[in-house]
């Protein structure tokens, strides 16, 4: 069974631009969550989606948004990029119910210059 | 890719010895815990999990211990190998109905040959 797939793996953007990251969950998994990982803050929860609905959101500004499609694939978008948005963005999938094991993809490395 | 967690606490262990990595969790209501291993340039990889109705769980070469009284989790790795070198994170979840995980800061394990 294929794991969680994230694209692109690496990208460089300029301050003020926007970026869209994509995630395909493990087959059969209906929940997708996103995390930001930085050296200073560690792994921080961004949001979680199930059946195209956001069920929970972390403490990030409104520039961070996401969505989920009917096939459970998800995207996250960051608008008006700031230097501090440079991070590894991780997508994780799980079956659904909360209190499930979440499995991570390899992440998308975003550098903002 | 970059390395995340450049200033993590580090545990150095001789190859063949046992390793113990500790984690203090934050919320007494958390009832599901996972240990992840993250190698450089990769996403976190599931190692082992435990629910709050247990105090010990064993896997292949790994054991997780849970002490709810003091909100403490530990990961024991038997006969540590060079391939075990990585950053290890604990994650806590507050169970069904909650969809985000809170991650510890991580511990870097270095295996000395």
How does this structure look, described?
The complex is a heterodimer of chains A (about 110) and B (about 110). Helices cover about 0% and strands about 55% of the residues of chain A. Chain A is built from no helices and 11 strands. In chain A, a hairpin with a 3-residue loop joins strand 4 (about 30-40) and strand 5. Chain B is mainly β. Chain B is about 0% helix and about 50% strand. Chain B is built from no helices and 10 strands. Chain B has strands at about 10-15, 20-25, 30-40, 45-50, 55-60, 60-65, 70-75, 85-95, 100-105, 105-110. In chain B, strands 1, 3, 4, 8, 9 and 10 form a 6-stranded mixed β-sheet that branches. A 4-stranded antiparallel β-sheet of chain B has the order 2-7-6-5, with no helix packed on it. The mean pLDDT of chain B is about 90. Classes of the chains: A mainly beta (about 110), B mainly beta (about 110). The interface of A and B includes residues 35, 42, 105 and 106 of A.
What is Rg of chain B? Answer: 14 Å
The ordered string of helix (H) and strand (E) elements of chain A is EEEEEEEEEEE
Radius of gyration of chain A: 13 Å
For the biggest sheet of chain B, the summary is: 6 strands, mixed
Total strand count of chain A, please?
A: 11
Shape of chain B: globular
Helix amount of chain A: under 10%
Low-confidence stretches of chain B: none
**Shape field of chain A:** globular
Distance from N terminus to C terminus of chain B (CA atoms, Å) equals: 25 Å
Q: Give unreliable regions of chain A as ranges.
A: none
Give me the number of helical elements of chain A.
Answer: 0
- Average pLDDT score of chain B: 90
Helix content of chain B: under 10%
Task: Pick out its properties.
heterodimer, A: 113 residues, mainly beta, 4-stranded antiparallel beta sheet, B: 113 residues, 6-stranded mixed beta sheet, 10 strands
């Amino acid at each position: 069974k294929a794991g969680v797939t994230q694209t692109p793996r690496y990208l460089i953007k300029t301050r003020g631009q926007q970026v869209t990251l994509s995630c395909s969950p493990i087959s059969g998994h209906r929940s997708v969550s996103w995390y930001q990982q930085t050296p200073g803050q560690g792994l921080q929860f961004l949001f979680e989606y199930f059946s195209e609905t956001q069920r929970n959101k972390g403490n990030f500004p409104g520039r961070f948004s996401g969505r989920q499609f009917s096939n459970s694939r998800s995207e996250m978008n960051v608008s008006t990029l700031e230097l501090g948005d440079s991070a590894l963005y991780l997508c994780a999938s799980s079956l659904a119910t909360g209190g499930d094991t979440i499995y991570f993809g390899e992440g998308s490395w975003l550098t903002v210059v | 890719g970059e390395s995340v967690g450049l200033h993590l606490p580090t545990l150095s262990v001789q190859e063949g010895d046992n390793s113990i990595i500790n984690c203090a969790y934050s919320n007494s209501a958390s009832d599901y815990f996972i240990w992840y291993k993250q190698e450089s340039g990769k996403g976190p990889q599931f190692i082992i999990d435990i629910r709050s109705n247990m105090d010990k769980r064993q896997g292949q070469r790994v054991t997780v211990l849970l002490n709810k009284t003091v909100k403490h989790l530990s990961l024991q790795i038997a006969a540590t190998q060079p391939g075990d070198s990585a950053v290890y994170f604990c994650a806590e979840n507050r169970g069904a109905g909650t969809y985000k995980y809170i991650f510890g800061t991580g511990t870097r394990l270095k295996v000395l040959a």
